[in-house]
Amino acid sequence: MRSVVMLICALVVLAAAGPLLAPHDPTAINIPARLSPPGAEWWLGTDALGRDILSRLLHGARWSLGLAFVISVMGLCIGTLAGLIAAQGGRYVDWIVMRTTDSFLAFPELVAAVVIAGVLGAGTGSLIFALTVTGWMRYARVARAIGLSLQTQGYVVQARLAGLSPLYIARWHYLPSLLPSLTVVWTGMFARAILGISALGFLGFGVQPPMPEWGTMLLDARIHMRSTPLQMIWPGLAVVICVLVINIAGDVLRDTVARQDRTE
After folding, report:
1. Position 19 in a domain
2. Can you give the pTM of this predicted structure?
């Protein structure tokens, strides 16, 4: 558990302080140094425009990890609210919310995100909107399931009989029980958001040049994939490592929550 926490902290530091650690300007074009191999000056080499790949990776961490964090938190808030409304709103409200959730789940997330981003146009705002709209449903289902199970608990029944508002009951009685499970879901959705951002960036719908982002770096490097494959390997490794670390953290949190539930 401690090692996982340290890895997560390392990712946070990388996203926050990455630009300060970059040895070069990530957008500076240096044609004489284009496609340079890794060496003393260019630790990971340069791309087709002579830009330092290491510097672009470090700056790109802020975009890839930062946007993924924003998207996953927004999905968490929207999904939790929808789930609580379904759990507390009665039979018809529950039916409407859950049929809406099922309608969104009927489409593959990435395909739906590509369609939405394509309609809205390339850009950071479109990327955030597309991945948020396609990523809140799992939170809603978990929040609704736990909310329905809590309705028969004594302290919730007493609070309802005392005339407390549904908002008060949700804040002080539902959320403390929801947070452990939703945190586990959030780690998985955080990793999926990183993949989604990279995929949309690779398709040209994400962060626009010249700003570095791991998906757009893969897009820029695809032309030289055979001659200089390292251009694609470095951002690909960055995505794989971050997603792997976050998924491991989610597994550890899931096991911890399961052990706590068995002991209670």
Report:
1. no
2. 0.88
